[in-house]
Write a structure and sequence with these properties.
CATH class: Alpha Beta
Helix content: 25-40%
Strand order of the largest sheet: 2-3-1-4
CATH topology: Alpha-Beta Plaits
Structural class: alpha+beta
Number of domains: 1
Mean pLDDT: 94
Strand content: 25-35%
Shape: globular
Radius of gyration: 15 Å
């Protein structure tokens, strides 16, 4: 089973963190072969998502720090493979939460949902 959304419990845990601190988000992505409800590949659909999402990220002061293709899991399950990883920095957890509720972001997030078979989003403090 893949994970593509947060649980209510995870959202509640997120709300307990200091919202004024900058955070980085580690994204581990596994694409669908074909995006849900489309003819694009999951990878192409995610590229469409990024093209639309990055300008929104910038409005909220966020920036993609690192993006790349994982080559090998050196420590961890040998069968756990990821197609792409990103690290995005937000000026504060509060700005991330505001962005996550922003209507334009919610609209383009449908591309991400369609693109991904599995996803991890890990909050990293600074």
């Amino acid at each position: 089973m893949g994970y593509t959304t947060s649980t209510e419990q995870q959202i509640e845990q997120l709300k307990t963190l200091d919202r004024s601190r900058p955070v980085r988000m580690l994204n581990l992505l596994r694409y669908r072969a074909i995006a849900t409800g489309d003819t694009l590949s999951g990878e192409a659909m995610y590229a469409k998502y990024l093209k639309a999402a990055v300008p929104i990220l910038e409005v909220f002061g966020a920036k993609v720090l690192l993006e790349g293709q994982p080559l090998l899991t050196l420590v961890g399950p040998k069968d756990e493979k990821w197609d792409r990883m990103l690290i995005v920095r937000y000026p504060s957890l509060q700005r991330f939460l505001e962005m996550a509720r922003y209507p334009d972001f919610l609209e383009v997030s449908t591309y991400r949902q369609a693109a991904l078979e599995d996803h991890r989003l890990i909050v990293i403090g600074e």
